[in-house]
From TrEMBL, chains A, B:
It catalyses: adenosine(34) in tRNA + H2O + H(+) = inosine(34) in tRNA + NH4(+). The keyword Zinc applies. Homodimer. This is tRNA-specific adenosine deaminase. Catalyzes the deamination of adenosine to inosine at the wobble position 34 of tRNA(Arg2). GO terms for molecular function: tRNA-specific adenosine-34 deaminase activity. Its EC number is 3.5.4.33. It comes from Acetoanaerobium pronyense.
Length: 157, 157
């Protein structure tokens, strides 16, 4: 089931890609059922809280009628940033599956190893990095972005 | 001006208090003008993103039409948690004024000294702890809460 839920998250990431947003998708499940899906919308909505994880957490809390997402699992295509990591821990999500590491902003283990420090009042029970094409999608997105920017620079010459 | 803006944040915190929410208030200013106010609403709205700082950041981004709150200052009556600290750093807020420390969840210096580690791609230029009655309001709130809970326990005996 984990592979299936991560594939749904990857399809969500492609929705961000089409909007020229950094392609990140997210799925939250409870009892092996999807209760929330989302994708990064920060630029389109001009909302600093527009990361896929936060949107998914908010949606899931509406579905469950509680801000405590006890018993829930999150599948996200990119390692969460500090803000999202805080929200994941705080909302009591129990299992976290990650599609690619983020060496620049990742707050699970890459930049700030919050989880391993176990300093928070709560913690995520299970964290797993999965083998996905998320890294490939992201690197292709940023390559395209650089190419488009270079075209703009050429026009300004 | 800092004292005035913090007083406005404290008045916001009292709105949370009346709703039996942990009393935390927040104000965001730009060019010495208030562009956003908010107070903690997590329990009332059942929203894991219902912390005062996140609501204020989202409101401010609507006012400015951008998720980058460059040049903005935040006044918050309690030291931000990990999620809110991430959002503050990520939204480029430049100055942060805090009304009381949070020894259990504070992510500025109390539990996880994110800022001092300077591991993030961005950082807050200026952080100041102010001398306020916020700590008194919070301890009175939790004292009342414990008292109410003890009454409930008595009834169940």
């Amino acid at each position: 089931m984990n592979e299936y839920f991560m594939r749904v998250a990857l399809l969500q990431a492609l929705k961000s890609y089409k909007l020229e947003e950094v392609p990140v998708g997210c799925v939250i499940t409870k009892d092996n059922k999807i209760i929330s899906t989302s994708y990064n919308l920060r630029e389109s909505t001009n909302d600093p809280l527009g990361h896929a994880e936060l949107i998914a957490i908010q949606k899931a809390s509406h579905v469950l009628g509680s801000w405590r997402l006890t018993g829930c699992s999150m599948y996200v295509t990119l390692e969460p940033c500090l803000m999202c990591t805080g929200a994941i821990i705080d909302s009591r999500i129990e299992r976290l599956y990650i599609g690619a590491t983020d060496p620049k902003r990742g707050a699970i283990e890459s930049v700030i190893p919050i989880i391993t420090e176990r300093l928070m009042p709560h913690h995520i029970d299970e964290i797993e990095y999965m083998d996905t094409i998320s890294g490939y999608i992201l690197s292709r997105f940023f390559k395209n972005l650089r190419y488009k920017k270079s075209l703009k620079v050429d026009k300004n010459l």
